[in-house]
Amino acid sequence: MIHITRDAIDPAALLAEFSAGRTETGAIASFTGLTRGAGDGGPVALLTLDAYPGFTETVMAEIEAEAEARFEVQDILAIHRWGPISVGEPIIFVAVAATHRRAAFEAVDYLMDQFKTRAPFWKKEEGPDGVRWIEPRAQDHQDLARWAPETPDR
Amino acid sequence: MATVKLFGAFQDMAGWAEREIDVTTLGAIKAAVAESDPRLPKRLDHPSTLVILNAAVIPHSLRRDDAPVSMSDEIAFGPPVSGG
């Protein structure tokens, strides 16, 4: 399930709810992303994410479907926050349930690499030096390339 | 009147987030948006820019200036995205 919210995220509560009542699941892997106080361009006091409700969830759901097709997973939860977010607060929570741990770890890793470069959010950092809009870093694109299909030798 | 939305840095450059624009092609919409700031024409044409028509991305290869836009359409422009 994909969800975007302007409210605070409580990763512990989300993980507890996601884990409850599972008798066929052998592994749950989760990831929590926090707002850092130091961005690539300097100190950050406040991060603001703009989203395009309707479109943003559609793209995230496409990524979720790709992960379900690619890995042996049972269930996916991804909650992404938008609006103003203070330093130290969770910005994203992702959890994956699977029969075995490898698929759960890999699906979380895959989802985060895809969200970093494809999920439609526009990030603005505010700090003592003013306001900066953030675009994907070269490292984010390298992370994405890890999942590109291998081309067979000819 | 097509609804035009701008996201991220484009919003700051133009000084507005949403407008009704009375034109019938993608090229005319871009020209109308570009009037708001001299940096916008180049950014709107860049391959990395997202052009979203009624919640679906228009691939760069299909973004012809004569592509029709109807009055009920919602079209959005945004710089490269960064979630997570």
If you had to describe this structure to a student in words, what would you say it looks like?
The complex is a heterodimer of chains A (154) and B (84). With 154 residues, chain A is of the alpha+beta class. Chain A has a single domain (2-145), classed as Aldehyde Oxidoreductase, domain 3 (Alpha-Beta Complex), CATH 3.90.1170. In chain A, 33% of the residues lie in helices and 36% in strands. Chain A has a 4-stranded mixed beta sheet, with helices on both faces. In chain A, strands 7-5-9-10 form a 4-stranded antiparallel beta sheet, with no helix packed on it. A two-stranded antiparallel ribbon of chain A has the order 3-4. In chain A, helix 2 (55-70) packs antiparallel against helix 3 (101-118) and helix 3 (101-118) packs across helix 4 (138-145). The longest helix of chain A has 18 residues, at 101-118. Chain B has a single domain (2-78), classed as Roll (Ubiquitin-like (UB roll)), CATH 3.10.20.30. A 5-stranded mixed beta sheet of chain B has the order 2-1-5-3-4. At the A-B interface, helix 2, helix 3, strand 9 and strand 10 of A face helix 1 of B.
